[in-house]
Design a protein that fits this description.
nine-stranded antiparallel β-sheet; eight-stranded antiparallel β-sheet
């Protein structure tokens, strides 16, 4: 059953490749990247199936093409593949919204070639998906869901060629509802680790935080395997973000004979102390 779900996932999701980081490691480990998470997120997952009376009243009064209080435009993409016509119907918003650095897959439409992408959002080149989404093959619905500023939100459904339900998943602003979250102190919601889970496998960006909320480790899973560059950070009490170590994993899952290796290390001041010779 797990294998079937993985095949369905591969067929219906837009393909993407894991971005490698083959550029040379920086001589300084001090991180100035403005999008790098430095403090733990606040995760307040709410069951998308739970709708309050107030929410139901709002739905009745909802204006056309306005979702989550945001005005959207509706459009579609049409493609012919193997004698079948594929339609993707979606809404997008021109609202200026900062992309959540914790979410790996942020969906947006690139206006130049009218292509939906899920990485490297550039507001100068396109718009975030926001509102209902449908994918059809000829007249058959194969996928439906909702986007919230580029992230999957609420209930997502997948169907086979006969319109029979194959899978149902839930998201909360891009986070899979099945994600594993561990806490230093659950009562105060002091997060230790966030491991994204889809179809019972690790899938997406992994985060480990120090007890004070500073980022400790970042990395990515794909189909349950560690991929790309994983980075560890020194605990500087949030004064600076300084790399401690970079570990290179396989660029694609299930790569045979690949042995992970330490790519570079820095001391607590950000000075490069080790670099793997190429």
């Amino acid at each position: 059953m797990k294998l079937v779900k993985l095949i369905i996932l591969a067929i219906f999701l837009f393909p993407y490749t894991v971005h490698s980081q083959n550029n040379e490691p920086d001589s300084s480990g001090i991180v100035n990247h403005s999008l790098l998470p430095t403090t733990a997120p606040t995760l307040l997952f709410k069951d998308p199936d739970e709708t309050s009376k107030a929410d139901k009243k709002k739905k009745k009064k909802k204006k056309k093409n306005i979702y989550f209080g945001e005005k959207t435009k509706k459009t579609y993409i049409r493609q012919t593949l193997r004698n079948q016509t594929h339609f993707v119907f979606f809404h997008y918003t021109a609202a200026k919204k900062t992309v959540d650095p914790y979410i790996r897959d942020v969906y947006w439409v690139e206006t130049k070639d009218k292509t939906i992408r899920n990485r490297d959002f550039d507001p100068s080149k396109g718009y975030l998906l926001h509102g209902p989404y449908e994918k059809r093959v000829d007249d058959v619905l194969v996928e439906s869901g909702m986007y919230y500023y580029g992230t999957k939100h609420g209930r997502w459904m997948k169907y086979d060629a006969k319109n029979i339900l194959q899978d149902k998943s839930h998201f909360s602003e891009g986070w899979p509802k099945a994600s594993r979250v561990s806490y230093y102190n659950r009562a105060d919601r002091k997060i230790e680790m966030v491991t994204p889970i889809e179809y019972e496998l690790e899938e997406g960006n992994f985060f480990h935080f120090y007890e004070d909320g500073q980022i400790a480790v970042t990395g990515e899973y794909h189909y349950g395997e560690k991929v790309g560059l994983w980075t560890e950070y020194w605990n500087t009490k949030n004064n600076k973000t300084i790399k401690k170590r970079e570990i290179q994993y396989q660029e694609n899952p299930y790569s045979k004979n690949f042995v992970p290796y330490i790519r570079a290390e820095w001391d607590k001041d950000g000075n490069l102390v080790y670099k793997k010779e190429s």
